[in-house]
Amino acid sequence: MKSTEDHLREMLAERADRVRPGPVPEELAREAARPDRRFPVPALLAAAAVVVVVAVAALVPLIGRGDGDGHPAPAATSSSGATQLPHRGTGKLPATSRYPAAGVCGRVASSVVTVRIEPDVPVPRCSMVRADQSLRVVNRTGDYGQRAHPVRVWWVPGQPVRLTPGESHTFPRRFGDYLERGVHELRITRAYTAEIWLR
Predict the structure, then answer these.
(1) What H or E segment, with its residue span, contains residue 92?
(2) Domain of 194: which CATH number?
(3) In this structure, which of 66, 85, 151, 171 has its CB flanked by the most CB atoms within 10 Å?
(4) Per-residue pLDDT tens for 87-127?
(5) How far is 7 from 17, CA to CA, in rounded Å?
(6) Count of domains in the chain?
(7) What residues make up the domain containing 160?
(8) Looking at the domain assignment, is residue 69 inside a domain?
(9) Helix/strand/coil for 195
(10) pTM over 0.90
């Protein structure tokens, strides 16, 4: 009498024989290899359109979320898409990149690095900083005769900070206490970013 194990082996072998494909006839292989049998361009474009529609559909639920000022909230992830968590070995937050995207990144000599949120962009867009410095953000959206408005800033680690026109906020911790070397992003309402490059 066969054991259950032997019986199962036989059943699996029978099923494997049934689903194993046979040889492809030469005629079918030649037909599939013909150059005129490639995907037509309209079909490829249609497939790309489907991918775009699916991506947009995935983002639609996020559109309603904002910062309370009518602007979408920036993502709570790094530019690579990964959630920022402290590095296990150092306990410090990893950089989003090694080098800044901004073409010019100036050094700041003072102990506090100040980023001004002006009407259209943060100034400076990139700051090269030391480990013993800290960050201050100022809402200057009313400069140059523009209509001032409140903004929110996201700095790691922590919750967003809302700044009314003319208001400033200092993040007192020194960069070297909680950041690994590299570029870190200060995110601002309306999807602006300023880069803080810890050297």
Answers:
(1) none
(2) 2.60.40.420
(3) 151
(4) 455 679 999 999 998 778 999 999 999 999 998 889 999 99
(5) 16
(6) 1
(7) 106-198
(8) no
(9) strand
(10) no
